[in-house]
Amino acid sequence: MATLKDVAREAGLSVGTVSRVLNNRGYISEETRTSVRDAMARLHYQPNAMARSLSKRSSSMIGVIVPSISHPYFAKVLSCLESAAHEKNYQLLLFCSQGKVSREEEYVSVCSSNRVAGLVLCSGTVKTGELRDLGFPVVTFERFLNNADAGVECDNYEGGVIAARELIRAGSRKLLCISGAGEVSMPADARREGFLDVCSEHPEIEVKVCLCAPEHLDDLNYVQELRTFLDEMPDTDGIFAGSDVIGMQAMTELAKRGRRVPEDVRIVGYDDVNLARMTNPQLTTIRQPVPEMAKECIDIIMKAARNESYPARTMFHVTLERRGTT
Amino acid sequence: MATLKDVAREAGLSVGTVSRVLNNRGYISEETRTSVRDAMARLHYQPNAMARSLSKRSSSMIGVIVPSISHPYFAKVLSCLESAAHEKNYQLLLFCSQGKVSREEEYVSVCSSNRVAGLVLCSGTVKTGELRDLGFPVVTFERFLNNADAGVECDNYEGGVIAARELIRAGSRKLLCISGAGEVSMPADARREGFLDVCSEHPEIEVKVCLCAPEHLDDLNYVQELRTFLDEMPDTDGIFAGSDVIGMQAMTELAKRGRRVPEDVRIVGYDDVNLARMTNPQLTTIRQPVPEMAKECIDIIMKAARNESYPARTMFHVTLERRGTT
DNA sequence: TTAAACATGTCAATCGATTGACAGACGATC
DNA sequence: GATCGTCTGTCAATCGATTGACATGTTTAA
Questions:
Q1: Strand, coil or helix: what is A114?
Q2: A263 touches chain B (CB under 8 A)
Q3: Phi then psi for A121, rounded to 5 degrees?
Q4: Order of all β-strands in the sheet with B61-66
């Protein structure tokens, strides 16, 4: 592999000058600029990112920890983060915690070792040890932790409120509120709260809260639990699903029971993943502005890198995507 | 951030000794070993991976280029790769090419800059320039390129054969063979070939080949095209879908047309992603041993790192997952 | 004419860890 | 008493790029 020195020799210039071209510092004539570029091309020169990071004391990598990659919501988040990072010439270092705290801690260490520019944490309960003073900012995605540097969230309470209103508007009276796994703890809590608050304003509404065990991160199979829930309230006519994946499986299970959607039962999902448009009828769902959220995460990390101040907590609105199930 | 020097000072030892502990070289007494560990713990020492990579001339990162992250098949691949890499203490550097050759080339450069230990290429047509002599092995996933160092594949021809036999076994006579996007070019070609070869052995079988445009990588919406295909052969009674995503949308579209699955139409998907179990009925599909394939990729990269020889081409069998649609 | 802006070179330190050469010290063994 | 094997230390080079200080030119512009 060619080094800076080789390029300098090839171009008949000094390392200093070549470095100036590479980093756009000081005075450089257009002429030498091109001759440096030519030399780099001839030698297939690729600057050694390790050496650069070492001397700059920070890399162009951003760590991302998700609980699961196969879950369409996190796949979507990853996709948006990659796209936002790429625009700023940053790369993603990907980690999958499978919801295990020990893994999260390990991955935080690895990020620290690699001197990432920042860490986006899509996983993790409040437990994860001390997240400050790591030398890089930790931004939580869709959750807020006191021990992190910043949080980018959606108004989950609002999401619950919108979902409840939509189901009631569509004529549902016996509601099932199903909280999923994967979006463990806090986000789901706020959604449920918003949902229940609206319900309590309507005395005629009956609600039942169902919690899924957090073990479905990879196989995403909620069928067993959904059966139990539906058995417990067989005449439900409105379901608020914690994710589109759950919503979709609820549709399948309802079809098996001969209950029609949306005539007999209305459903509101969450996340608006691709999946939600593939069902028949298409799933009504609550959408988060994931691309904007991802961009915000990257922005925060870049601001921190430039030593600028950044918001400690950013909250986005969610919107209702009304489709065929309500 | 504490450095090796700091640890040495804290432990009252020399850098040489501390480095010996870290890298398990030479003679070290159990006593100093623990005192070094203690010192590291006290200082929250995290070895600088950049410095290490620089002097070792190789990092513990593995580049991965996929065309899309939201596509459940690639999400699954990523998930398995992450898991296999983690076992060996390697990290993934994630790139999403969106099927664009220019992006692929750019990403290969970035990997080269970062002196990755290897690159797993899940994306890319044969076009991608020269992939050898980059200083690290390039392993293609589910495709074979002459200009890469190794390929880990599935027997796609076999997949096509199995799918055809299954549809015929289930009583289908007018077949639709739909090749998807995302799994562009070669993999899909071989599948189709196997499928058609079996069909040509049965003179009573009618087949129609349909190609989807490769623009659905992110939204995964094949509905428009599926409608066209189904209009062209409205009485089809057997569909071989290029992916479960397509298979699932075909089910939805068939339901709208009042055609029952599997009574009127049989469907065989491909990939066996989580999705395939969420439909009603569950989708019969061709499964690839993705976890094993991912492990093999990582193995190859590790062998290359140790300068051992590795297989240039590894082929796995696919298996039929017979479920409700056949 | 003279001071500035422009353009490049030299040199050396630095980032943090790795590695090898070499030198002592201690204890055990023959 | 000589010879190993074990344990640690010192020292310096190296990986490849960055950066700053400083010198030396050449153009421009006032």
A1: coil
A2: no
A3: -105, 105
A4: A313-316, A150-154, A138-141, A118-121, A61-66, A91-96, B91-96, B61-66, B118-121, B138-141, B150-154, B313-316
**A70: phi then psi, degrees, rounded to nearest 5:** -75, -20
Q: Which pairing describes strands B174-179 and B284-287: parallel, antiparallel, or unpaired?
A: unpaired
For residues A252 and A267, give the distance between their C-alpha atoms in angstroms, rounded to a whole number.
12
CB A91 within 8 A of CB B110: yes
The pair of three-digit structure tokens given for residue A301, joined into one six-digit string: 């990390």
Integer distance in angstroms from CA A26 to C1' D24? 16
Contact A114, A96 (CB under 8 A): no
pLDDT tens for chain A, 326 residues: list them. 899 999 999 988 889 889 998 998 888 888 889 999 999 999 999 999 999 999 999 999 999 999 999 999 999 999 999 999 999 999 999 999 998 888 999 999 999 999 999 999 998 665 656 777 788 999 999 988 888 999 999 999 999 999 999 999 999 999 999 987 545 556 778 899 999 999 999 999 999 999 888 777 778 889 899 999 999 999 999 999 999 999 999 999 999 999 999 999 999 999 999 999 998 899 999 999 999 999 999 999 999 999 999 999 999 999 999 999 99
Q: How far is B114 from chain A (nearest CA, A)?
A: 5
Say which range, A175-184, B17-26, B188-197, has the weakest mean pLDDT.
Answer: A175-184
Q: Which of B49, B83, B113 sits opposite A48 (nearest CB)?
A: B113
CB–CB of A72 and B75 under 8 A? yes
Q: Are B141 and B300 in contact (CB under 8 A)?
A: no
Alpha carbons B16 and B48: distance in angstroms, whole number: 16
Nearest of B92, B94, B91 to residue B67 by alpha carbon: B94
CA distances to A165, A188, A197, A299 from A161, rounded to whole Å, are 6, 13, 7, 29
Q: Which domains does chain B have, with CATH numbers?
A: 4-47 (1.10.260.40), 59-154+290-318 (3.40.50.2300), 156-287 (3.40.50.2300)
| Residue found under tokens 């993943």 | A273
Residue pair A292/A141 in contact by the 8 Å Cβ criterion: no
Mutation choice for B interface testing from A52, A132, A278, A321 by most B CBs within 10 A? A278
Expressed in angstroms, the distance from the first to the final Cα of chain B is 60
Q: Which amino acid is at A114?
A: N
Q: Which of B154, B220, B150 minimizes the C-alpha distance to B190?
A: B154
| Residue in A102, A83, A99 with CA at minimum distance from that of residue A297 | A83
Q: A-B interface: how many C-beta pairs under 8 angstroms?
A: 139
**Which residues, in sequence order, are CB contacts of B262 under 8 Å at separation 6+?**
B170, B281, B324, B325, B326
pLDDT in tens, B129-185: 677 778 899 999 998 888 899 999 999 999 999 999 999 999 999 999 998 754 555
User: H or E stretch including B240?
Assistant: strand B238-241
Report the gap between the CA of B103 and the closest CA in chain A (Å).
10
State the alpha helices, DSSP H only, in chain A.
Answer: 4-11, 15-23, 30-43, 49-56, 72-87, 101-113, 156-169, 186-200, 223-232, 244-256, 290-305
Number of other residues whose CB lies within 10 A of the CB of residue A19: 16
Strand D positions closer than 7 A to protein CB: 6-12, 14-21
**CA-wise closest residue to A139 among A53, A64, A61:** A64
Q: Write out the H or E segment, with its range, that includes residue A267.
A: strand A266-271
Task: Please give the DSSP secondary-structure letter assigned to residue A274.
Answer: G
